[in-house]
Each structure stands twice: as structure tokens, then as C-alpha cells.
Amino acid sequence: MSDLALPVVSPSGDRTAPFLARADHHPENGTLLGFWLYLMSDCLVFACLFATYGVLGRSYAGGAGGAQLFELPLVALNTSLLLLSSITYGFAMLEMQRRRVRATLVWLVITGLFGLGFLGVELYEFAHLIAEGHGPQRSAFLSSFFALVGTHGLHVTFGIVWLVTLMAQVGRHGLIAENRRRLACLSMFWHFLDVVWIGVFTFVYLMGVLP
Amino acid sequence: MSNASHHDTEHDHESGAPHSTLRGYLTGFVLSVVLTAIPFWLVMGKVFPSSTLTAAILLAFAAVQIVVHMIYFLHMDAKSEGGWNLLALIFTLVLVVITLAGSIWVMYHLNVNMMPAMSGPSSMP
């Protein structure tokens, strides 16, 4: 960026750029920083949903509570699926750094399958709850539960749509600089969803079943 | 071809994209598995009789695991994107803490102090 700073003639006559901080390395591409700022705003969305659940999570309106409704083995399975998808996405990024298209695609497919498995288990859980009369309209606790966990599931859904799109892009154009940038953004998105899930399984499920 | 890929590698380096390593991912994964398994075991095995103690331990494990994910999976450090990543994260964390703690605190006190005295839960509409 140094070519943007015009040389200034100082009183002593030297042509210097006194306002240019040369030590500060400014990235030439702001996409990753911009995407990080998006993730932080998404973090605030989840903070509001967590706060809502924190306030309403014990208002059962005479209905069933977390201890009766949550099946922890299912949650443990979901947590492992999401954690495994995180590490396989990491492997895809490692293959991307080595410029191996096929291996990158294979790891992306495995990541997508783990993501689909996660969604499948979550949809099964939701369908099971709703079928037994514990839908979001039953109590404030269930409303806030479905809002929070459903928003996370929606994020995973769009992450999978994005993943499939990028697999088509990589398959067609290879690991060009644009695709590597896109994969790096999706990597942040995917790992961010795993971070949010840590909050969900701790705050909603594990603390929800405590007596 | 090798020339082009060499140029691309340099570009990656200059654009500040984090360079991940297998070692880093595996370390993060193993730590995450341990930090996930212990909370599940604490709750499913009913290790502590006190709910408050268990909840406090669960929150501590979650906080540590979030830091592990930030470092090993999201490649956060003080230098990424010239420190702006960390600055944005700290700002966000301040807002998150205000939102969470503020909401729960205010609403708890409204519940305790301003709800009319009720004969029982059945009188709720």
C-alpha cells in the first residue's frame, strides 16, 4: 500500500511520508477480515437467541422440561458428527494447500456427509418432539429451544449448500486463487458453527437436563 | 506450471491467509474430544449431586473448548489480519457478555420482584 501515500515535503526539504506506518502490514485482500466481521455479527444473533433461552429456558408452562425431553445419547452423536466434520474440513484445507484437487474434493464430500448426518439427527429429534406434542407453540421453553437450535441447524443447511456449490466450482475450475479464498471463508463459517454448537450442547442440552 | 503455483503460494502468504498444519488440526481435535467427553460424562454419569457445581464446571469446559477451537481451527492469534480479527472478537465478546448477563440478570429480578403473588402454578393463564 506504500504507493498510495504521496511523498510529503517536510519543512527541512526531505521528501518523506511522515504519516505512513511502515511496520503495519496491511493485508492486500480484505475478504477474510470482512468475512470474520460477518461471523462476529452472526455471533451477536446467536447471543440474542442464547439470552432468550437463558431467560425462558425454565418456563415450561406446565409442560415437559429438558430433563424429560432431551436424549443425551442423540446429542452426543450429533456433537461427534459436527466435530468430525470440522476435522475433515481441516483435512480438505490441508489438501488445498498442497493443491491436490481430488483429495480436497474427497474430504469436502466426507465433510458434507457428516453435516447431512448432523442435520438428519436434528430433524429426527425435532420431528419426534413435535409428534409427541412438544412443538414450539407448547411453552416459552420450547419456543426458545426451537428458535436457537433451529437457527443453528439452518446455518448448517446453508453451509452444506455452500459446500456443494464450492465442490462444483473446484471441480470445474480447480484450486484457483478465488476458489481457495472461498474455501477459506467456508472453513471459518464451518468451524464457527462448531463453536456455536459447543454453546448449544453445554447451555441447552447438558445444563437443561440438570435437576 | 510450477512457476505459476509458486507464485500462488507467495500470494497466499502475502494475503495473510493462515497456513494450517496437520499437527495443529489433530491437536485441536484431540483436545476437543476430551473437552466434550468429560462434560457429557459428568452429566450422564451424574458424577456430582450438586447441579450448581456441575453447571459451573460445564461452562468452564465450554469456555476452554471455544478457545481451543478459536486457536486450532479458526487460526486466531494476535497477528491475524494485523490484529483486527482479535479486536473485532474482543468487541463482540463484550457485547455478548452484556447481552447474556444483562438479559438474564434483569429478567430474573423482574420475575422475583414484580410477579404478583400467586396461589400456585395452576393460576397461570
Q: Could you list some keywords that capture this structure?
A:
heterodimer; A: 211 residues; mainly alpha; Four Helix Bundle (Hemerythrin (Met), subunit A); two-stranded antiparallel sheet; 6 helices; B: 125 residues; 2 domains; 4 helices
Describe the structure.
- The complex is a heterodimer of chains A (211) and B (125).
- By secondary structure, chain A is an all-alpha fold.
- Chain A is built from 6 helices and 2 strands.
- Chain A has helices at 31-56, 66-69, 72-97, 101-131, 140-173, 177-208, and strands at residues 8-9, 15-16.
- Chain A has a two-stranded antiparallel sheet with strand order 1-2.
- In chain A, β1 (8-9) and β2 (15-16) form a beta hairpin.
- Chain B is mostly helical and 125 residues long.
- Chain B has helices at residues 2-14, 22-44, 51-72, 84-114.
- The interface between A and B is large, with 54 and 58 residues.
What's this entry about, in short?
The complex is a heterodimer of chains A (211) and B (125). Chain A is mainly α and 211 residues long.
Q: Estimate the helix proportion of chain B, in percent.
A: over 70%
Measured between the Cα atoms of the first and last residue of chain A, the distance is: 59 Å
- The domain tally of chain A reads 1
* Quantity of strands of chain A, as a count: 2
Poorly predicted residue ranges of chain A: none
Oligomeric composition of the shown chains: heterodimer
Give the % helix of chain A: over 70%
Round the mean pLDDT of chain A to the nearest integer and report it.
Answer: 89
Task: Report the uncertain regions of chain B.
Answer: 1-16
- β content of chain B, as a range? under 5%
Mind describing the biggest β-sheet of chain A?
2 strands, antiparallel
Output the structural class of chain B.
mainly alpha
User: What does the radius of gyration of chain B come to?
Assistant: 23 Å
Beta content of chain A comes to under 5%
Question: Number of helix segments of chain A?
Answer: 6
**What is the class of chain A in the CATH system?**
Mainly Alpha
- Total helical elements of chain B: 4
Judging from the principal axes of the Cα atoms, what is the shape of chain B? flat
